[in-house]
């Protein structure tokens, strides 16, 4: 099994892949779109990308790709606990408090915003492609007084020294990663529960349409665990809605509700029914 993941090696996405697909041949891609294109064009068997972080919310790039592109279905969701650490090159350990620039993925920087504001007011902050890309860059540039925010695996792999552990601002920090594949996947781990994701576009300027959509689920007692709007990119005030259901799309009542929602003039994109797996 070839698994494309948002790399380089030792990103949180890599941890997600290794926790559920220990035998997969992991192929790192530099960006989320490159991972998704790889699975779409069948260069790999699956792609694993981040979808949502408990502190920072959705990864908009992933959500937009799911809506605008024709991709394989979501086959699994992996939830990974996120511990962000502050790390420097071994040559710069003694002077780590004098760090001049801190680099990481935008989500990771945001998860540590209070820490950075409190402890490194005067340091510059710069986004990099991923947490591991930032760690790799810092390891290759000992001459710079730079630090990376990344995980323990990245510190070990790229030979950096963790000088401050667990610097994320809130303790409950988890990220959801999704696995997209054309074929059903063999997963050895026990799942925690089944769910589905859909995307809905409402008919233009029809009063009460969102209420009607939610009613179609509510009176059938279909449990929703997420509802989020994203711009359609066709003008201000135009949105699509991403909805997670704690049910399979094969359940009769779910099928009936989607039929009703379509009859109301909405467009429904079904992204898949899948199980959640915990990385711990
Ligand atoms: O940069 C990484 O390590 C990733 O896997 C990406 C990502 C994200 O997109 O949110 C994943 C988990 C963490 O929340 C920070 C970054």
Automatic annotation (TrEMBL):
Coiled-coil segments: none
Domain ACT: 198-273
SUPFAM superfamilies: ACT-like, Periplasmic binding protein-like II
Span of domain Prephenate dehydratase: 2-182
Keyword field contains Magnesium: no
CDD domains the record matches: ACT_CM-PDT (cd04905), PBP2_Sa-PDT_like (cd13633)
Biochemical pathway: Amino-acid biosynthesis; L-phenylalanine biosynthesis; phenylpyruvate from prephenate: step 1/1
UniProt cross-references to Pfam families, sorted A to Z: PDT (PF00800)
GO MF term set: prephenate dehydratase activity
Catalytic activity: prephenate + H(+) = 3-phenylpyruvate + CO2 + H2O
Keyword set, alphabetical order: Amino-acid biosynthesis, Aromatic amino acid biosynthesis, Lyase, Phenylalanine biosynthesis
Gene Ontology biological process: L-phenylalanine biosynthetic process
Domain of life of the organism encoding this protein: Bacteria
GO CC list: cytoplasm
Catalytic activity, EC: 4.2.1.51
Site (Essential for prephenate dehydratase activity) residue list: 175
Gene3D superfamilies, per the entry: 3.30.70.260, Periplasmic binding protein-like II
Enzyme class: lyase
PANTHER family xref list: PREPHENATE DEHYDRATASE P PROTEIN, PREPHENATE DEHYDRATASE-RELATED
Protein name, UniProt field: Prephenate dehydratase
